[in-house]
Amino acid sequence: MALRLPSRAALGDAVADLLRNAILDGTLKPGQPLQENALAQELSVSRSPIREALLQLERENLLVGRVNRPAVVRRPSAEEITQVYTIRAALEGIAARWAAENRTPALVAQLRQKAEELNNATIAAERDAASSVVDQAIDLHSAIAQAAGSPELQRLLQSLCNQIKFVMAAGLASLTRRRAEEIHAEHLALIAAIAERDGDRAEQLASAHVRGARDRLVHLRGVGANADVVMD
Fold this sequence. Notes:
mainly alpha, disordered C terminus, three-stranded antiparallel beta sheet, 5% strand, 232 residues
């Protein structure tokens, strides 16, 4: 079988995928400039696929292009945060209610394990190892949505996944231990409600968890990077 290098177009797609993932997991921070020459050198490619990738990410509204200056990672607006997380709060509240109704001992054990892994990753992110936090947070909430047993609900949440990641990643800029402890406590309370098959409380806690994150993120957007992070 002959080995072939990807075409220039395919290489541009590969670079776009790499940069997109780095934006959505928080490795590339809001406001961070992306220098074509530096990226080309780091990735050992020419500037052409870099330029193509940056233009693609501008079209996806992940980057902001600037005349005669490097593109920068876009910062989500307060309105965008409010809309995405208000919708997410409603959907995840329903998911938590249905997961509680369907709960099994195996599900509860799985959720507790995922919550502990997320907490460990969140604490580690204080030491600049944040790239796994967003994916692990999504993984925990996806497990609850899957347990709800509704393909329609899962499809709705999946359609918002990149927008949720984009907003969530923007909150990693000022991660604090105090906020990590609050997030973990909220997750454990939600899992306890699911374990008790208390659908009303599970829905209330899940929705309140996301609404609280929304309100803190909007505040963070307004006051800058010195406020507490809300990554979840």
